[in-house]
């Protein structure tokens, strides 16, 4: 399976484990992930809806575990069977996952890093723009 190739399977949806709640994490058995590794960010599709989530493993083969927020985003209910499709997220999708994460432990450091990069870039640009003034004055 290539990075952009979608993998579509039918799984029974079950509730997430307590440590996975409000973390934008799903759990799938390794045999269903293909080349998608643990902690990779994927775009998950179901019922015409989609969201970005991180993937972890589970021992059960025919289930997908997800928390309430992800179930609401996708419009699915627990103990029901749905057709899910997932593709590995690109760089923009990974950034979107970090910046839109429900968990403040993920979202706040991501936004701090984003604004630090933006401010550092602005400072570097201003420094480069001021360089000709310093040389030719």
Please describe the topology of this protein.
Elements: E1 7-15, E2 25-28, H1 30-33, E3 41-46, E4 49-57, E5 63-66, H2 68-74, E6 80-88, H3 91-100, H4 104-135
Parallel strand pairs: 1-5, 2-4
Antiparallel strand pairs: 1-6, 2-5, 3-4, 3-6
Radius of gyration: 20 Å
Work out the strand percent: 25-35%
Percent helix = 25-40%
Q: What structural class results from the helix and strand content?
A: alpha/beta
> Looking at the structure, what is the overall shape?
elongated
Taking all residues together, what is the mean pLDDT? Answer: 89
**pLDDT under 50 segments (min length 5)?**
none
Number of strands: 6
By DSSP (H or I, 4+ residues per run), the number of helices equals: 4
Q: Care to describe what's here?
A:
With 137 residues, the protein is of the alpha/beta class. The protein has helices spanning 30-33, 68-74, 91-100, 104-135; strands spanning 7-15, 25-28, 41-46, 49-57, 63-66, 80-88. A 6-stranded mixed β-barrel has the order 1-5-2-4-3-6. β3 and β4 (49-57) form a beta hairpin. α3 (91-100) crosses α4.
What distinguishing features does this structure have?
137 residues; alpha/beta; 6-stranded mixed barrel; 6 strands; 39% helix
Q: Gist?
A:
By secondary structure, the chain is of the alpha/beta class. It has 4 helices and 6 strands.
């Amino acid at each position: 399976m290539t990075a952009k190739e979608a993998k579509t399977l039918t799984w029974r949806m079950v509730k997430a484990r307590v440590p996975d709640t409000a973390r934008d994490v799903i759990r799938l058995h390794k045999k269903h992930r293909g080349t998608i590794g643990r902690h990779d960010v994927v775009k998950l599709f179901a019922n015409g809806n989609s969201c970005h989530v991180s993937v972890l493993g589970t021992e059960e083969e025919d289930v997908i575990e997800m928390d309430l927020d992800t179930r609401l985003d996708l419009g699915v209910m627990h103990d029901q069977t749905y057709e899910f499709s997932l593709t590995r997220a690109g760089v923009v999708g990974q950034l979107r996952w970090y910046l839109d994460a429900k968990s403040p432990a993920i979202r706040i450091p991501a936004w701090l890093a984003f604004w630090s990069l933006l401010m550092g870039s602005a400072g570097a640009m201003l420094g480069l723009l001021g360089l000709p003034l310093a040389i030719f004055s």
